[in-house]
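Methods — Computational structure assignment.
A single polypeptide chain was analysed. Its primary sequence is given first, followed by the predicted tertiary structure written as structure tokens.
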Amino acid sequence: MHVTHLSLADFRSYTQAEVPLDPGVTAFVGPNGQGKTNLVEAVGYLATLGSHRVSSDAPLVRMGAERAIVRAQVRQGERQQLVELELNPGRANRARVNKSTLPRTRDLVGLVRTVIFSPEDLTLVKGDPSDRRRFLDDLLVLRTPRLAGTRADYDRVLKQRNSLLKTAGLARGSARDAALATLVVWDEQLARHGAELLEARLALVDDLRPYVGKAYETVARGASRDDAEIEYRSSVPVEGPLEAAILAELERRRKDELDRGISLVGPHRDELLLWLGHGPAATEDRLPVKGYASHGESWSFALALRLASYDLLRSDGDDPILILDDVFAELDPERRAQLADLVAGAEQVLVTAAVPEDVPDALAGARYVVADGQVTRA
């Protein structure tokens, strides 16, 4: 898979941009603040309907504009499609494929697949559990696009249920009884969608685990593939039927939820644990990456998670587009060379760098200079 042409209108700093692209490596080089990352961010947004830099769409629309357009010609084998997304902050976004409007924006997911390496990747290791849950869910949706609907349905139910918990916690008498009766309905929906999401996450972690060990062995000095381990920790027991387990745990935690006015059970409370040590058979020798790993080890683990994602997606039968956003400036020379060698053979690699020297020799290819709002082929 690769993008053959990228068009932007009122996206970030660009009033208009037209960028033809080839397979292989393309580097966008220029000083910080000139718009290099904006270009690759747009490609990444088409894949996940989210930015790797911000959590809302508003910053993606150029100041003073009402909407932004991201449009890409995407080739997969002999098939070529025009993929387009219209960003409308405060209103519904719109998606089109070959100029036909899709019923739902999320129907766009799966037509573009990307893996992004960026300085923000350290949050996968050092950030909150929500960062790691998002990592899993983004990868889930890239592999199985229909799960975008499950994810959206779960988030919708969770929001409604939290609102009802706040109301029920403050209500008295018949009003409280009515709220609790309604809560049972939301419990069932949370359990149904949550069980599907949880089952998919558990399977994903099982599939991803060997790739993480292999990738960590490659990027960490002197490491073996048993030195990096991932583990999914659920807020409910996972031995039996998951929907029943969620319902039982909701009942058990009912008083706590009403007291706090928030849902305490479900995939939104789960965690992806990252371990350094000697594999799952030697649990007493493992240490959590967060809080114990050095800066270099943390970077190696973050890189291993991204490389593992790439290898897993590739094993599904199609190369995702690799985006290396200003990542080489953060790495020491050895890790820089290792990463470049590992990804050089990808069908399409998009690189951003502040100076030409930050682009490793192994990633020689097409080059664009980005300066003063202009993207010029060197």
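Note: The domain at 1-113+318-378 is CATH 3.40.50.300 (Rossmann fold).
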